[in-house]
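Long-time lurker. I teach an intro course on protein structure, and each term I like to show students one example going from raw sequence to a predicted 3D structure in token notation. This year I'd like something fresh instead of my usual example. Would anyone be willing to generate the tokens for the chain below so I can use it in lecture? Attribution to the forum is fine with me.
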Amino acid sequence: MLLKSIKKVFILSLILGFGFLTSCDDDDTTKIQEDIVDLASADSNLSILVQALQRADLVSALQEDGALTVFAPTNEAFQALLDSKAAWNSLDDIPVETLKSVLLYHVLPIYAPSQNLSDNQGVTTLNGEALTVDLSSGVKIESATGQSVSVVTADILARNGVIHVINEVLLPSALPQDITDLAIATPDLSILVAALQRANLVSALQADGPFTVFAPTNAAFQALLDSNSAWNSLDDIPVDVLTNVLLFHVINGNVTSDLLTDTYVNTLATGPNSEPLSLQVEVTGGIEFNGDSKPVTGLINIAASNGTVHVIDKVMLPPNVVTLALNNAGFTSLVAALTDSRHTTDFVSILSGDGPFTIFAPTNAAFQALLDSNASWNSLADIPIATLDAVLKYHVVSGANVQADQLSNGDVSTLGGTITIDLTSGAQINTSSMQTVNILVGAATNDVQGTNGVIHAVDAVLLP
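-- Reply from a regular --
Happy to contribute to a lecture. Here you go:
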């Protein structure tokens, strides 16, 4: 099909272009046996071009009878193209359709030796886009992307056309930029790029995705380094720590700001049992991530070929269950209960430990209902500390990180006694005080995964 298209374009171009490109004398090419591909294959400095033609399945097209003009990039030109993108280590890394489009941009369906070219002459290539001839200083070809490429060897005649060797690969349009390309091209993300390199994550963000990346600025990374006296550079951060921190800034999917809601999203970082860590997203009153990281004005929704980048003002550290509760406005009563100064149990220290923990977390409304159940309880301070202590322990399962899909019917031991999971009518908990409490199933309320455990919101305070 491609060969037929080339023949049709060739005939049409001869008719339309006859006025400004004269055809060659028969004597110029009739005695030449080699076609364009033969001549390119015989030139060691055009070997990458030949490989590119093979990969793009264009070899036979340039062996056809007719009269073609090929602007042939040198090996050095192709290497410069590969070097221009971090993801391209070889021709195999260039998408075939991209490579084919670029190669066809180097082919004219007419015979155009140098003597037939004129200054400011526009010519249409086989990919449908134009090139412009510039003869003001030597022979140069200007591309649609503003390149000015020099012809270094002209008029290599073949039986089916002519080759002009050029010193740069012509680009019909800007190359697609993946997330890593965008980061590399942004000076204020240079430390992020260095971090990705150290954590060996560059290739991960060059994959097809799509991904959404929250990209901390250089100032954000410097603040991270300044937060730890032992960290003078990225090299001082343990690689495993740096890797999980970076992966905490990446989620699957192409999530632009208009799709954000008050919820939690799974990141590529993992916690206990390799469960994805949860990133808190808040949009009410302004966009905020992980409790206190904000997007940089004007630097959100940056489109990449494999996703979206939002530049943020703080490096987000993966949270434990305590931090998750502290950051959630729906758990302020729970946090107040855990941090009551009357406690002899240091709940914050315990729940900041390795765990893992599974926590059934009452909402603010659940705590208000508890206060309303006793006329003498106007605030948490009115609840006897021994009672509050026992109640809080009853919400914590130690030594287990149990996601919702891992819950099963039966008794579960908590730090304060036994609860019973009942899945017969939804996700519910039966307490020893004969309560039936609902686990609030939803992205914003359960399976909220931290580094040392998981939180499930419940609609009532569990009473032992």
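Some talking points for your students: Confidence is low (pLDDT under 50) at residues 1-27. The longest helix spans residues 2-17.
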